Amino acid sequence: MRDLVLLVILGWIFVQAFRRPWIGILGWTWLSIMNPHQLSWALRDMPFAAAVGGATLIGLFATKDRRDYSQSREGITLMLFMAWMCITLPFSMLFDDSFDLWKRVMKIDLMILVAMVLLHSKRHMMLLTWVLVISIGFFGVKGGAFTVLTGGSYKVWGPENTYIEGNNEVALAIVMTIPLMRFLQMQMTAKWAKTTMTVCMVLMAMAALGSHSRGALLAIAAMALVLWWRGKNKVVGAVVMVVVAVALLSVMPAEWWERMNTIKTYQQDESAMGRINAWGMAWNLAKSNFFGGGFYIWTAPIFVIYGPDPLNVHAAHSIYFMVMGEQGFVGLFLFLTLFTMVWFTGGYLRKQGRKQPETQWLSDLGGMLQVSLAGYAVGGAFLSLSYWDFPYNLLILAVLGRRWLDRKEWLKEKAEPVVYWPDFLKKRFQKKNRAPLLP
Predict the structure, then answer these.
(1) Which residues of 18-148 form beta strands (DSSP E)?
(2) Nearest Cα to 392, choosing from 364, 372, 367, 362?
(3) Which of helix, strand or coil describes residue 340?
(4) Residue ranges of the domains in the chain?
(5) How does DSSP classify residue 263?
(6) For the residues 299-314, what does the mean pLDDT come to?
(7) What pLDDT digit, counting tens, does each position of 135-186 carry?
């Protein structure tokens, strides 16, 4: 039954992608971030993402819907980063393996660019945010409940055969999603909806802690610091954060505390020292090779040449050193420039959006995008998620938000009431005066 329902949903998205390619983009994002077919029995190996992506690209040129080909500094920088990865590909030390991952990264980045062409309205931005929240929230809420019921004695893991399969990776994904959930909550008016979202955010935080990821703990701390710094009443904010932290941490078992304490004694931790050795290898390789080593360089033969300890082979476990080793210093510069731009665009939205009541939601969005990026910047320092889709979707939201604000789109879009999903389902088949899906 599960497979049949999923097949019907994906079939509908595939058909709609030809006529309304923005629906295809949302479907692609859902498939790419959540990988719902991995939860089925018989559909796991079906190329749904390729089918929906192909239909969306056809729809891009066939649709009569609005398309926006204007360029932003983020879009241009992303294209430069893609071009650089194409330049470095022939110089890859392990070309066959590198070529496979290069194709995957190019597909992801291409669809990010397509999304910035097809999505433009407030409705699109809200829907994209909901897709991201639901995609990660499904695993986070479930993982949080599991952590509470088991007392944190077992690790929370991500979906198999995805970027976030590992406990560390899914923890960062969950942490980065919490600010987006808070943004959606800030747009809600119904008390039951706000309460439900609060419960979900608490469970998400519990899931991140239940992953036993030290990087996730640091990412949560970084996001909390940003929120506290921006709070109007810092004393009250600090007290609330301490109370919430004590309540959440009191659930965690002794083995969790022992693992977190290894942050202080990382010199004695084999995993931590392996990461530091991998960072040293990336630094040595980038200094010796202008174009980097290409994808999949974290292997024994390359560590023998560039590793400080040639026998301690370890994955990069850092978005920064991963890009440095694979794409060289030029690639790292483009990568850092890209997300620095997204950070400042989020800040622009946060400040400019509060000037008009109609754009206050963009101020909320910009602030929460920055909080999410703070989690990525800190947590990503210890994880290999440089090419993962989610952060690039934050880029999409930032770019679309600035376009919407600068062009005064709130003066052009027809004012219609906000409708939550349950009400929307009741009115779905009304032919006239249908309210937009803005959860």
Answers:
(1) none
(2) 372
(3) helix
(4) 1-65, 72-265+315-426
(5) T
(6) 90
(7) 999 999 999 999 888 888 888 888 887 888 888 889 899 999 999 999 999 9
Distance of CA 188 to the CA centre of its chain: 22
CA 419 – CA 401 distance, rounded (Å): 21
Residue closest to 94 by CA, chosen among 280, 293, 292: 293
pTM of the model: 0.88
Task: For the chain, give the number of residues.
Answer: 439
Q: In angstroms, rounded to a whole number, what is the distance separating the alpha carbons of residues 298 and 194?
A: 45
Between CA 248 and CA 245 the distance in angstroms is: 5
Q: How buried is 308 (Cβ within 10 angstroms: 0-12 exposed, 13-18 middle, 19+ buried)?
A: middle
- What is the token pair recorded at 299? 């292997």
**Number of helices (H), then strands (E), in the chain:** 17, 0
CB-based contacts of 297, cutoff 8 Å, min separation 6: 93, 94, 285, 325, 326
The CA distance from 187 to 360, in Å, is: 10
Cβ atoms of 346 and 398 closer than 8 Å: yes
Residues 6+ apart with CB under 8 A from 108: 32, 387, 389, 392
Three-class SS string for 103-140? HHHHHHHHHHHHHHHHCCCHHHHHHHHHHHHHHHHHHH
**Is residue 319 a contact partner of residue 381, using CB atoms and an 8 Å limit?**
yes
